[in-house]
Amino acid sequence: MSAFVGKYADELIKTAKYIATPGKGILAADESTGTIGKRFSSINVENIESNRQALRELLFTSPGALPCLSGVILFEETLYQKTSDGKLFVDFLQENGVIPGIKVDKGVVDLAGTNGETTTQGLDSLGSRCQEYYKAGARFAKWRAVLKIGATEPSELSIQENAKGLARYAIICQENGLVPIVEPEVLTDGSHDIKKCAAVTETVLAAVYKALNDHHVLLEGTLLKPNMVTPGSDSPKVTPEVIAEHTVTALRRTVPAAVPGVVFLSGGQSEEEATLNLNAMNKLDVLKPWTLTFSFGRALQQSTLKAWAGKTENVANAQATFLTRCKANSDATLGAFETCVTFDAIWIRRLVGCSAFLVAAKGSSFFSFIFSSFCSLCRLPVTLFPTALLRLLSLFESGGVVPAWWLDLGRRVASWRSTPVRFSVVSPSTLSFAQQISAAFGGGHSRFRRLLAEVFCVSVVPTRSTGCACYSPRGRVSSAGASDLLPCPTYLRVIVLCIRNSFSSYENSHVFS
Amino acid sequence: MSAFTSKFADELIANAAYIGTPGKGILAADESTGTIGKRLASINVENNETNRRNLRELLFTAPGALPCLSGVILFEETLYQKSSDGKLFVDILKEGGVLPGIKVDKGTVELAGTNGETTTQGLDGLGERCKKYYEAGARFAKWRAVLKIGENEPSEHSIHENAYGLARYAVICQENGLVPIVEPEILVDGSHDIHKCAAVTEKVLAACYKALSDHHVLLEGTLLKPNMVTPGSDSAKVTPEVIAEHTVRALQRTVPAAVPAVVFLSGGQSEEEATKNLNAMNQLKTKKPWSLSFSFGRALQQSTLKTWAGKEENVKAAQEALYVRCKANSEATLGTYKGDAKLGDGAAESLHVKDYKY
C-alpha cells in the first residue's frame, strides 16, 4: 500500500470511525494553561490548578452530556488529573464511551520573511511523547496549523510548511497508535468575501492531502478539522445555507472519501452560529462521503463558563447550559436542529399553564387564548409575562395536573414527513431566563427545573380535512373535536388540544432526560 | 472558487454528470490512423479511409448499442465522416443520446534521462483545436498520459510531468467547452504484485489531483480514466473481487467526491475480464461517491472486429457481438452482470500488448 500500515492500523481505523459517529462530536477542552487563564480572567476566576480541574470536572460530569460526545481533546495537564472522587478523567471518559484525545503541538512560531505567517512546532520527540500519551489512555491527537488570508497570504511557503508539518505529525501519531486530527485552520480575520475563503480553503486542503499522501498517512485512520467557509470577520454575514454550500463544495473538491469524518472548528463563531451552520451542512442534499460533525471549544463552553463564574453553587446550572449546547450540536450533526423546538416548548408550557389555570378559574378563557396566542405570534419575550403565571405552573406541577412530556420530539418529528408549522421563536436569552426562574423557584425542586429545561414540542401540521392536526410525543392527537370548541384559527385550536391532552391521563409520565 | 469558472461551467458539469449515468459508459473508438491500421491488419483488412469509415459505421449503427453508451471518443478524422446515408456520425450519435468526444493529444515522447519514461505532447494550439472540435459537435476530450512500473519507475520527474501536462490540458479544454477526461494510465507490464500497483496508482492519482487543483480545474466538470489496480502482466492473476477492493480503495484515498464519474480503461485485459472486474467494483459495499463505469476500446471491439473481418455479410453478426459486450458492460456498471454474456470469438482472449503504444 502507499499508506503505512503499522501494527495499530485496525485500531486507528476503528477509533477514527467511532469519533465520526453521527449524533456525536468532540469537545475541545485542550486550552493550554495560558489560554485557559484568559478565559478565567473573563469570569474573574483565578488561574490555579484546582480551578482548572474544577472546570473540566464540571464539563465531563454534566448529566446527559457525554452521550452527545465521541471524544474530548485534553491538555497534557488534564490527562493526568482526577475527579473529586479520585477517578482519573481519562478513565471516567472511557467508561462513558468518550475517547480521550491530546493536544500535541507546541504552538506557532513566525516564518521569517513572511508577513506574519506562522508554522507550528512540536515534532521533536513527538514519537516518544505519543507513546506516553497512549499509555496514559489517549487514543487521538490534535495539531493546529494556522494560515491567514491577506493580499499575498497565504503564501506558497506557508501552505507548504504547514501542510508538511501536519503530514509529519500525522504519520508519527499513527506509528504510535494515536488517530491524528489534521487541523489546517484558515483564520477568519479580514475583509475578504466568502468566495475568497473558499478558494484559499480548497488550495490549502489540496496541499494538505498531497502532503499526507507523500508521507504515506493512512487516511482511513485520520480526521480532518477544518474551518467552515465563511466571509471574513470584517465582511457582511451570510446565511447558514450559503456557508453550508460553500463549505461542502470545498470539501467535495479536496477531501478523499477514505477520510471517515470532518470535525469542524468553530473559529470565532458564536455558539448559536456554529450550531446553525453545522446543521445547514448536514441538511444539504448533496453526496457527502464523510460525516460532518463538530470539534468545538468556545462554541460549547462559552455560556457554560459564564454560568459557572467559578462558584460551586452555579455548577448544576452551568452543567444544564452545557448539556443544551451538546444536545443542540448533536442534533445539528443529524440536520435535526430546530431553533424553535426548545423555545416553542417554553411557550406551549406557558400557554398550557396559564390557559389551564384560566379554564379552571372559569375566567374569560377565550380572551386569554387570544392574548396568549397573540403574544406567541408576536414573539414577545417571556419577561413580559407576569412571574405569577410561572408560580401557577409550579402549583400545577406539584399537584400533578400538568404531566411530564417527552422531550426530543424534534427527532421524531423529523421522521414524519410534513413540515411542521412553528408558531413561535424566541431568543436564547429566554431560555436562560427560564432557567434562572426555575433556579429561583426550584432550589431543590429538580423536577420542575428539569421540566423547564426540557424540550417538548407540538408540531402543527396543516391538513385538509380539519384545518390542523396536532402531534404530541405520544402520537397524533385527534383533532376531530377541535371544531366543536370554538370557531378560532388553527393555532388556537392547538392550544385547546394541548389543554385537553394535559387533562387526560398517561400511563408513562416519566421524564426523558 | 479556486476552480476556474468559464462560461461553459454549467454545460461542463451537466455533460460530465451525463457521461457518468449508471448503466452507460464510453466506447473508445479513437484509434489513430496508425493504430487502427494494426487492428485492421490483424483481420486482413486494408487500412484505407473507406474501411475505417465502414468499421465506425458498423459500431455506431449497431442496434441496441447506443442506449448502453453515454459517449464515444472519436479520432479527428471520424469527427467529420458520414454514414453511407450521408449523415454525420456526430449527428447519429447525438440523436442516439450519445455525446461525441475527441482525442486531443499527439502521442507520447521520451523523457530524456529516464529509463524509457514518457510525457505526452499536444498542448500547442490546443485552445484553437478545442474550439474547432466544439463547433464540429464534440463535447468531451481525452488525453492519455502513460507511466510504467519498474525498479525506479515511475520517477518523481515522470509523475510530475504527466500530472501537470494533464492539468494544463484539462483547463484548456474547460475554457473551450469540452469536458476533459483525465487519463493517467499506469501500464500493466511487469512482474510486480497488486500491492505495488496500488501504491503507484495512489501516488500518481494524488499528484494528478494536486496538479488539477493548482491549475484551477473545475473537478465537477471532469472525468477520470484510470487503470484498474491489478497485478503485473507477468504476475499471477487474482480474482475480480481482489481487483475491485484494491481499485476502489485507491480511488477512495485520492479522488475527491466532486468528480462525478470514473471511467476505467481496460489496458490489456480481455473483454470478459474487464467486464467482470467492473462488475465486482460496482458490487462492492463501500463508499463510492463517483459512479464507476467503462471507457473501453479493445475490450468492446475485439470480438466485433474478429466477427466482421471486413466482410459486408458479417456486419449483422459483428453488430450483434458489439451489442453483447455493450450490454454486459452496461450491466457491470450496475453490478448486475451475471457473467452469462454469449462469449464472442476472442472475448476471453487477453489483449495485452507489451509496452503498448498507440
From TrEMBL, chain A:
A GO term for molecular function: fructose-bisphosphate aldolase activity
**Organism's domain of life?**
Eukaryota
Enzyme Commission code: 4.1.2.13
User: Is the keyword Ribonucleoprotein assigned to this protein?
Assistant: no
Question: One of this protein's Pfam families, by short name?
Answer: Glycolytic
- Kindly list the places in or outside the cell where this protein is found, as annotated in its UniProt entry: Cytoplasm
Secretion signal span: none
Gene Ontology biological process terms in this record: glycolytic process
Membership in a protein family:
Belongs to the class I fructose-bisphosphate aldolase family.
State the name under which the record lists this protein: Fructose-bisphosphate aldolase
The organism encoding this protein is Microthlaspi erraticum
Automatic annotation (TrEMBL), chain B:
Chief subcellular site? Answer: cytoplasm
Biological process annotations from GO: glycolytic process
Q: Which UniProt keywords apply?
A: Cytoplasm, Glutathionylation, Glycolysis, Lyase, S-nitrosylation, Schiff base
As its record notes, the protein acts as a catalyst of: beta-D-fructose 1,6-bisphosphate = D-glyceraldehyde 3-phosphate + dihydroxyacetone phosphate
State which pathway it belongs to.
Carbohydrate degradation; glycolysis; D-glyceraldehyde 3-phosphate and glycerone phosphate from D-glucose: step 4/4
Give any GO molecular function from the UniProt entry. Answer: fructose-bisphosphate aldolase activity
- The main enzyme category here is lyase
What family is it from? Answer: Belongs to the class I fructose-bisphosphate aldolase family.
Protein name (record): Fructose-bisphosphate aldolase
Please name the source species.
Microthlaspi erraticum
Its organism's taxonomic lineage begins at: Eukaryota, Viridiplantae, Streptophyta, Embryophyta, Tracheophyta
